[in-house]
Fold this protein.
Amino acid sequence: MKKFAMLLAVVMVAVFSAGVTVAAKEPGTVTIKEVQKIKPPVTFEHKAHADRIKNCAECHHKDAAGKEQKCFNCHKAVKTGAAVPMKDAMHTRCKGCHQKLMEAKKPAGPTKCDGCHKK
Ligand code: HEC
Ligand code: HEC
Ligand code: HEC
Ligand code: HEC
């Protein structure tokens, strides 16, 4: 009985530490809801975008592969150090690409406010 309790404790420790050392999992669908002063949150298909774009650093421009973090870690509600506000980072990267694709008459994501900020 004592031996079993020991074994269980060892297993629990192993499971727990595995859980905390694993990097953040690449998300499927993401709802970006970091700053809501005026506009509702934006839901987008992260996996579909990542599969299409392939190069994760296209968006995660400051992160090494496998260490991708939230944009909001640096891009806050207002300009913080060199990092532009969250709104500008998102509009430049997200809307910018959609706009370019649309101008090239290729399949693109939304460029109108309500297309992204859905009520
Ligand atoms: C391609 C998608 C996309 C489009 C199109 C878009 N936005 Fe955004 N916008 C975002 C994302 C993503 C954020 C970050 C949201 C967050 O952090 O919660 C954001 C943030 C904002 C913010 C800051 C958050 C707040 O509530 O204060 C404002 C204001 C904003 N957008 C206004 C607009 C307006 C106005 C338009 C149309 C002219 C527009 N957006 C079009 C994706 C988009
Ligand atoms: C179109 C831009 C874009 C591409 C391409 C992209 N991501 Fe992301 N990723 C985001 C955004 C935006 C978020 C969430 C931001 C937020 O919620 O503040 C995010 C979130 C994440 C998170 C969650 C971080 C956390 O701590 O919650 C991980 C992990 C991640 N991405 C990994 C990847 C990997 C791996 C790839 C490439 C296979 C990739 N991403 C490609 C835009 C992108
Ligand atoms: C570790 C901090 C950090 C993270 C995380 C980060 N950024 Fe940035 N970003 C910056 C800094 C600092 C700048 C200012 C210019 C530079 O140093 O490249 C910047 C600039 C940008 C610009 C250029 C804006 C302009 O108007 O010139 C875009 C677009 C951008 N980031 C998008 C993103 C997106 C999208 C994510 C998340 C997928 C993200 N960033 C995550 C720090 C970060
Ligand atoms: C490199 C180009 C590119 C970038 C960067 C990009 N997108 Fe897109 N996005 C697309 C394309 C292409 C589609 C349309 C795919 C289709 O309909 O076949 C799309 C579709 C969408 C759609 C509608 C379908 C869906 O996925 O829900 C939303 C919403 C969207 N994007 C939001 C975003 C947000 C938010 C970001 C930034 C975090 C972003 N996009 C960055 C190219 C891009």
Observations:
- The CA atoms of residues 13 and 19 lie 10 Å apart.
- The two ends are 57 Å apart (CA to CA).
